Amino acid sequence: MLFFKKKNASSGQSAAHYDPKTQEPVLHCSICNGEQVAGFKDCRTGAFTEVMLVRTPADLETFRSRYGIGDGEIRKVY
User: Where are the beta strands (DSSP E) in the chain?
Assistant: First the structure.
């Protein structure tokens, strides 16, 4: 008996589309537990699109290289 469908790599984690004209890369940080989530904030609506959890500096570097984001382009939002 199968309750949940197994996710494929193609259907599970799709890469978020990043449009630098309408979106801004941000690091959404929790004040309570220090959790950091990298994603994109829509400049018009303010909606946040979560891309990945950042636990180490290597995770942040992976996010930057995947979307072609420079060193000082990501700001922290609390």
Answer: 23-29, 36-42, 48-54, 75-77
Per-residue pLDDT of the chain (78 residues; tens, 9 = 90+): 566 665 554 444 445 678 899 999 999 999 999 899 999 999 999 999 999 999 999 999 999 999 999 888 899 999
C-alpha angle with apex 69: 62 to 39, nearest 5 degrees? 70
- Residue 72 tokens read as 């000082």
Determine contact, residues 30/55, Cβ cutoff 8 Å: no
Q: How far is CA 1 from CA 4, 6, 11, 61, 67, in A?
A: 9, 13, 22, 41, 40
pTM score, whole prediction:
0.75
Would you kindly state where each structural domain of the chain is located, as residue ranges?
A: 18-42
